[in-house]
Amino acid sequence: MNPNYKLCAELYAGVLGCLAGIRFLSVTDRFLNELAPVAHGQIAKDLDTKYENLVKGMRYVQIKVWPPEAFEEGAEFMEAMAKSFENSHGLRFKVAFAETLTRLLHPIGKAAQAEVNHPQWEKAIEKIYPRAKEMMSKPRYWHVAYPLAVTALCVAPHQFFLKHWMACFEYGISKLKDKPYRIPILNGIVRLIWTYLYRCQEPASTSTSKLDGLLKHFFPTGRSSVFPPEEHLEPFICVVHFIISRYFEYGRDFCLELLQESTNPSNTLAPERVGIVVQATLLTLHGLEREEPTPTWPSSVDFSAIPSWDDYPSSSDVLPASVLSKPGIQEFTERFGAVTSTIARTCFKAVGHMSVFDDQWLLGRSSASGSASTFEESHNLVIRRHPEGSFALASYKRAINPGHDVYTAHRFLFPTVVDMLIHGVVHVEPRVGEVAGAALRRFMKDPVYAPAVLKCFTAFMFDPKNIEREGNGHRTLLESARLLNLWTGVVETWTTGLSQKPKQDLTGNNLQVLLQQAEEIALGALFLLSYELMTVRCAGVKLVRSLVPLCKDLASEDTSTNDPSPFSFMHSILFENDTKESPFLEGFDELLDRTELDRLQQWRRSAKPDFLLRIADSSVEKDRKIWRFVYPEFMRASMPTCSKFIPNCRAVIEAATSRYHPMMLRLAGISSSGRMSEREGYRLIKENMILIDQWYVWTRTLCATAVVSDCRPPMTQAGREHTRAPSESNFERERMSTTRCLFKHLTPFLDVDYTPFRDAAVLSISAFPLEGYPQLLEDLNLFTTRQFYDEGRTKPGSPARGIRTRRSARLHSAVGRIYYLTAPYLHSLKSSSKQDALYQALKFVRNTQAFLFAPENRDHYSLQRLRRYFCGLVERLFDDSGDLSGLDNSISPNIHLSLYRMCEEWCQIGTQNESAKTRFILMQRAAAAAIKDPEAESDAGERFQHETKLLSHASIGAMSSLCQKAYRPPDTVELTSPIERPVVDPPKSLEAVQVLDRIQAVFEDAQPLLVTSAKKALQSLLVLPEPGAGLLADVLCRGFCHATASTLSSAAFFDAIVDVVCIAPSHSFTFAQVICLGLANLCHGDVTIRRYAFNTLVAAHEQRAGVIAMAEFETMVANSTPSVYLQAHRLVGECLAGEHPEQAFEVLAEVTALLSRVHRLGNERVCHLMLQGLEYWVPNLEITASDPSKLTLTSRGSLVAYHLLALTKRFSEAQPEQIAAIWARLVEVPEPLSGRAVASFLINESLKVSTTAFVKCASEVVACLSRSAAGVQIFQELCSVCGPERMLPTFEHRLEHPNPAELELWSDLDVLFADDQPRQLLGSCSVRDDTCHPFGRPFSSGSSGHDAAVNCTSYAVSSDASLRAPVPLNNRQGGTVYSGVSAVHHREYGGPRRFPLLVGK
After folding, report:
1. Using alpha carbons only, what angle is made at residue 102 by residues 39 and 69, rounded to the nearest 5 degrees?
2. pLDDT digits (tens, 9 = 90+) for 1039-1051
3. Where does 535-670 show beta strands of DSSP type E?
4. Cβ atoms of residues 982 and 900 within 8 Å
5. Rounded distance, CA 442 to CA 316, Å?
6. What is the 3-state secondary structure (H, E, C) of 271-331?
7. Whole-angstrom Cα distance, residue 343 to residue 347?
8. Rounded distance, CA 121 to CA 12, Å?
9. Are 609 and 484 a contacting pair, CB within 8 Å?
């Protein structure tokens, strides 16, 4: 039949059943009318399907027992149905009819009593039962005929039932041997006995005598089993329950007989019988407690299903006094409890310790596992599967299974023995665990027993001795989800009750007991926080959140003791912590990858006071790794305050770690029994990674909280110990108590083949407390001496010398990493032990340097990791050179330089020499060639490149710490160290350009950590007392941020300069250098650079004792509008020039030097603003001598003129107005001789610098000065030189011997205006002289008059110029000037020029 059709038919039948409940007669009459042909035997065989569906439609029709009228209607209906059933034919039709009649009759047995004696009902049963009995003889009808016969008999009239029920019972007994019939027959017997006992009763003597015979079928005399041997005991339990409830005394004696009260029940256990009696007794007692002494009629119509416990609820709670006061109940419970307690103890002794933590019950360990693993149950094994991961498969031999079944049956009877219950929770039989947990929960509801249960349960879970004792594998009790959930539930129940208690009831001894219990629970919760399993750790977080705040308040009220409670401290750390001040999130940044570090930064920025619990409770994988570092630090920080609480928790961790240690030895390949192939080893490591992580967390916590002891255990070689697991766990725990014992405990893992174990050992040893660091260095020194240096000297020339195997490379790298990770302790030690520690670290550095520099090791590819850790150690060791000042006699004077050169070879950022490049290529090839698998060669090459990249980064950090003293080595001292050898070939000294190029390459790489190291290196150079002018100038040049294409390196250089200027007042930069660079970057488009520049200017201003505050310009500088921040540039420059006029010359020199290096293309704004700013500085320059009779510039004035000439030459065409303004401001001073002195300087120097470029530049200067206030004086000076006698060539400048300052100026001008076009003179005045020029060119002899005339050609006068005033020239001079200037102009510029000269008298 179509499934949709079946579904529709089922829905219609349900609707008809609902209608029949309202209109019974209407619905049933319609059915009967349709079935009339069946009742008369008039249907054909081909119509069976129609009537089959019709009969199935009556399945939901309900016959009501009350009121009587309704039952009469039902009896009439059943009589008609019985007639139709009697005449039905066909297999499917008869089967459907029998099923429908069973569904109609079965509910009547629940409520009907005398009603079934109704005549019409009796007629219906008299037709139905014989027909069903007839069908039982045919196998094809038996599955529906037997339930119908039993049901019809159970609802038959009283006499009819008594007449036929024994025959039906005996028929069923004869069929019990056949397993297919067993469950339906047992269900039928249950209904027959219920009907006999509670509806069709006989006298008690008659009934008990019949019951004796009936029960002997199920419980044969002389046997301990039941018949039939059925796994499901529910039918037997129901029968015994019915009997006890009807005849209590008879049932009581029968139960005690089954329990063998008269004999010793422990001799011959009858597990099935005991289970039946116990369950039946509990059902009966619970019925009395509910005041329902009559058991209910089975509600299920399905005879193929076992009876449901929903019909027979049970309870194992303590019986109330009202039930015990009933006759015979007290005596029965006492006798029953005594015998069952004996049986329970026997069962526990036999099978009670079959724990899931005992590896002998694992299926894989069983000898028959090969055949039993395929089937759920075999003839010799009973398989029980658990939900707890890999250890959840338990098996046990069938030979002990009967005893186990008894133990299971007594799950309600050993609540008085808490230890039995707790062991039952982790039993290999899941049913035992379920009922044991239920029993413990019931105990917790009783306030009398709850404290004892909780104390025992907590001790079972967290007592170190119990952790070591339970089971024989690595798994601990907390790895059972059932046990953990049960304990947390018990604790929550206790905590809830404690919070609801009035505070006035919690005083005195009661409060102390509660707090002691709370400390034990809190200890367990703190241990749960150390677990890698998410469920276990979250359970600990949940307990801490509920317990610590509550107990903190209770502990504050306890005034009976002076001992501090740990709850206040834990509450302050876990609930009131500040991420900004917390040390728990610091110190392990380098151990995280980029994503994990970003996550850590998020937690550091978090404002949640309970961030530690949030990290522990997080399901994010990155938080799990962060918690591995946070938890040990939390335990370490809690040790001083919780002097008893944390050590007790540490003892629990010691016990758990000792359980893991043998397995870790096998996985790491240290144990001799754990040797395996490489592929198999990596597979096991991958499968057990969570266990390795757990072992690492515990081991790191033990190291972080270890005690520092002076006792030194015997040192053994790595990999030579732990060949077998220790026989006693106490010995194993003792070796985990002190730092030295832990060091010896972990050293075998330093050279194993698997990285997780090496990392775990290294990170754990690095977590030793600060107090144990000197001892750690001593132990490391002894260890390395024995492992590396002594072994290397055993057989000179043997293959074992140098790098012999991968093991030695791994071991050396691990030791180097320990030195590197613990190096920050060096600068935190007390002065009494710091020098010794520094000496030990320096000794390792020297030895490792020699080791790595050896020819056989220098190019070895497997030492990249050791080189990286070595660089990290060097960086941290030499980072604070002040701590090393006491060891100057033990440090080689070239150690910084030699280490710098070594690290420089490993750095691939920046320029590398050819030898370093070749060495890298050879090592990369060797790394790929060492892999035998061709498919893995690419992976090996990638790993080598990754290690090389990390080495480059580490070398940058090392060079940053070494840079200062490598660039400027300390004075040579006499070495007193006996192990220090003189250097035969000292390394080459550093050059400033090389160092700065490397720093610039790092800045361009733009990795934050590397940039920080490079800035540190640069700043260390800048704070040297005498870094050198070349270095400072190069740094200032690189610190200029170009306006259009500002590179990362320029910004980083400038940032470093800003930090040095603002933080280190003793820097070597001059005020002018700082001001020049700051003003140059103050006009940059990036607001960050402008802020840095402004801060630099303010710092320099304040360091020079500036008076006017510059804070008012800060907002203008930070403004993004160019018109605003460019105006700020002008105002800041004006302010600085006014405040520091004495720095004018230095500022001019620095501006000239800066602008000479700046490319004009793209930097027009910078050039314009810097030239504009000079206008405020130039008036402060004094260029003339104090003696007015001398018309010459001072030496400084000459330099001013030189710098201005340089600016004029470079910017006269691009910035003509600014150049003119600068020259004008130079001569616009009260001293009238300045302009004339400048003109005289130009004329005099033109005789020395014999190039057209200088003459042209001088003419441009005169043109600029002609429009200034000193224009008249300058013109007068020029005219005074243009006399006829001055037009002749002169050689005086060749005969004079200039002083050094003049010679240097001459040289600078000659370089500045160097070109290949010598000056051309007028007519006969031009005399060529081939005598040697001081700077390598021939002289061109000329005259001062000629030079003055040339300059006059560039003189610009307006129509109303002040030259209308008479010039003191006679007619001859005027004519000479006029003719000479005209001729010069015609010669120099290609045309005549008129001059408005006014000749005097």
Report:
1. 75
2. 988 876 657 888 8
3. none
4. no
5. 8
6. HHHHHHHHHHHHHHHHHHHCCCCCCCCCCCCCCCCCCCCCCCCCCCCCCCHHHHCCCCHHH
7. 6
8. 28
9. no
